Amino acid sequence: MWPLLLGFVSVYFFLTSIYRLYLHPLSKIPGPKIAALTWGYEFYYDVVRHGTYIWEVEKMHDKYGFLDDKNFKNEVRQAVTEMSNLIHVSKFFPMLATMFKAMPRWLVAKLRPGATAVLDMQDLITERYNAQKDETKTYKMTIFDALTDPSVPPEERSSARLADEGMILMIGGTETTARVLSTAAFQLYQDEHLLESLRKELRPVMPTPTSNVSWSELEQLPLLNGLVNESLRLAFGSTIRSPRVAPTESLQYKGLVIPPGSPISMSPYFVLTDPEIFPEPESFRPERWIEAAQKGQNLNRYLVAFSRGSRNCLGMNLAYAELYMTIAAFVRRFDLEIFETTAESIRPGRDLGMAQPKEGKFAVRAKVTNVIKE
């Protein structure tokens, strides 16, 4: 019996391998054969090696040339960090999330202590929604009101759906913007010339540290605009590869045909660090955006931290407003001293949905050394 079963399994894997390597519609796409044979290749780097597959993909790009086309250029944080740590495992074992939700909370705490932060945050979102859903309102107050409108199908108005949506909104509205602000602070407060130049640019629109200024006014300031864009570029937003599918049409790329229904994905990291688009990509140079504008070059088309097209970030404009106004207010009011933080503290070394350093977690520490009075 066992020899027969072993023989059957061997034949199955042999035939499957032949199909994937030579007969599959994507078999002519260049790349390492082991990646075509099994998900285990990605699993090894993203799960065993903890989020390093993105750099294996970068090596593939260098070898196979996929990116050389010039035209293709508190609690919340604890919960976000834990979700990042689990993101690749959950991709390969999607039932884990359902299992964690079904387990008693004490058991989750023993098996994966950090996961309780995620569940607690979802419970809090559900609790707060339930506490206000019966209130009489004459107009829509929040996105949850829209999601629970009677026009939405009943199966899409469940508490579980709201908890998931709320978690996504919390992540998208906190950690990503916080990382950009942290990147800006780290670079700005270690470059005295850049800091003073920005303060000089801000003083005409903010005569005092507490002056009110609009986002539209701040957008017109070239150096601040360059600082925001460069901080976005090196904070990356989400580094995870977001699949896109052309359901009914074949795609052509360099003589290769990608059949309908094939998922295609890439990380924004590769565009934002492409040396042909951004020379010296690891250098923080806000002036590159000023220079590009002076030459009539639209460098913003390559700023994909919010993604692009119909699936780009819904909160993009809110994030921009927060970035411009927070940086301006902070720079005009405070002197900071960066401490216990180096470039390695924010340099991407792992892809956990958002870039993390090789060791520890992304963090910038600073002391307020002076409050500016005028």
Properties at a glance:
374 residues, two-stranded antiparallel sheet, mainly alpha, single chain
Give a nutshell description of this structure.
The protein has 374 residues and is mainly alpha-helical.
Walk me through this protein's architecture.
By secondary structure, the chain is mainly α. It is 52% helix and 7% strand. It contains 16 helices and eight strands. The chain has helices at 2-23, 33-37, 40-48, 53-64, 76-92, 95-102, 105-111, 115-132, 143-147, 159-188, 192-202, 215-219, 222-235, 268-272, 287-294, 316-333; strands at residues 244-245, 251-253, 256-258, 263-264, 334-338, 350-352, 354-356, 366-371. It has a two-stranded antiparallel ribbon. Helix 13 (222-235) crosses helix 15. The longest helix has 30 residues, at 159-188. It is globular, with a radius of gyration of 24 Å.
Which outline best applies?
Answer: globular
Largest sheet: 2 strands, antiparallel
pLDDT < 50 stretches = 69-73
Strand fraction band? 5-15%
Helix percent reads 40-55%
Order of helices and strands: HHHHHHHHHHHHHEEEEHHHEEEE
Describe the strand arrangement of the main beta sheet, using strand numbers: 1-4
Rg from alpha-carbon coordinates: 24 Å
Number of strands: 8
Output the structural class. mainly alpha
How confident is the prediction overall: mean pLDDT?
81
Number of helices, counting only DSSP H or I runs of 4 residues or more = 16
Report the span from N to C terminus: 86 Å
* Assembly form of the protein: single chain
Binding site for heme: 313
Keywords: Heme, Iron, Metal-binding, Monooxygenase, Oxidoreductase
GO molecular function: heme binding; iron ion binding; monooxygenase activity; oxidoreductase activity, acting on paired donors, with incorporation or reduction of molecular oxygen
Family: Belongs to the cytochrome P450 family.
